[in-house]
Amino acid sequence: MANRRLLKGxxxxxxxxxxxxxLAYFLFMPDIAKLKTDNPKxxxxxxxxxxxxxxxxxxxxxxxxxxxxxxxSPYLIxxxxxxxxxxxxxxxxxDYEAMQKAIEKDIKAKKFKVxxxxxxxxxxxxxxxxxxxxxxxxxxxxxxxxxMEMVLSKKRILELYLNVIEWGDEVFGVEAASKYYFxxxxxxxxxxxxxxxxxxxxxxxxxxAAGNQRYVVNRSNLICSIMIKRGIIAPEYNEAAGEDRxxxxxxxxxxxxxxxxxxxxE
Length: 266
Prior knowledge:
- The chain has helices at residues 2-28, 44-55, 74-84, 96-109, 119-128, 135-151, 154-164, 174-182, 191-199, 214-229, 237-241, 249-253, and strands at residues 166-168, 171-172.
- The protein is mainly alpha-helical.
- A hairpin with a 2-residue loop joins strand 1 (166-168) and strand 2.
- It is globular, with a radius of gyration of 20 Å.
């Protein structure tokens, strides 16, 4: 019975999308093509936060420094993909399995949250939409995501995402986050620091990447363990390399190991 209800719910969602997408295309479609070469100066989420701060009468300063993908630590890129969208290079903007699981949770909780968003969907929301979870916003997000995947390369989508997402109060993008939490550029992040930054993305204003909150510690340890299993980092690297110097504590736990950057399947 529950499965039948779920299937009916999924069919209804896709029916609504089929009806709404043509209209939404004309109503919500921004100029995605310019993102191929232009870096957005301010996102919809930044403007939303600015409005919140102004209403509270507080002074604010958005911290963001644009950084090309080639100058971001490969460990950070891997950690974020593991934490946020492990199928990023394979899907075309939507992870239908994750969406189905999210819908199942919504049905059980009797709430409309959906979730299961890919990096492409999160980027669409951050760039152009509000944090609202209403169905109309979700339709607009789907349309923009679909267009974004058609126009932009996977590398560019990932580069945009890492540079605009919120990583703390007034902190946007990985370069600003790396300097804010660890006092170093994003190119120099260790695997442990990368895992910690990735761990807080579900709620970056609640969790501190450099802190000792249980959630951050547990989630970052899980991300690191996955990176070790996949050969992205190797705890035995220092011994194998026969280094003479005494490594730092973080390097002993998660030593730096050169890796090839994963290529998108376009």
